[in-house]
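Example 150.
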Amino acid sequence: MSSSISRYTLAIIKPDILIRQSQCLDSIIQKIETKFNIVNRKQIVLSISEAEQFYNDHRGKFFYERLVGFMSRGPIIPMVLSEKNSQVDSIKSWREFIGPTHAENARKLDCLRGEYGFSDTWNGFHGSGSHDEALNEIKFFFPDFDKTNQ
Ligand SMILES: Nc1ncnc2c1ncn2[C@@H]1O[C@H](COP(=O)(O)OP(=O)(O)OP(=O)(O)O)[C@@H](O)[C@H]1O
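Predicted structure in complex with adenosine-5'-triphosphate:
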């Protein structure tokens, strides 16, 4: 069973946090570190074409342009996270930790998006949705990441 557990996921702290709530960043990082090891982390600003590439699967959806504009509007913090409990799947655990996509639903739960999200697009955090997505997204932001060396 443990072979089906994903050890790593790709998380992003989105621009709304860094633009509007940067004073909360330290406590957000502390909260994340209660449950996850931050294996890799950087702060960057995506170009529009990089944001388009990252969210290519959403191309054509009604919120795509808004999402790309938002994600390239300010700094983001992509991170490779690993659950501190090695028996727990990092992808599932991080998605539970951030909560539902829509801020209104997230606010009903104890989760990062509930605490810091503003709206459906400005929802503060990203998490990979599957093992393959995590591998691709980690490669996108951290091309030199080598999980065998971790
Ligand atoms: N109905 C919507 N209206 C506006 N923005 C949306 C909507 N649905 C999703 N988004 C934005 O697009 C992002 C990607 O959508 P997706 O459906 O993959 O949600 P998610 O898996 O919860 O989020 P993420 O991929 O960022 O972890 C969301 O995090 C949000 O910022």
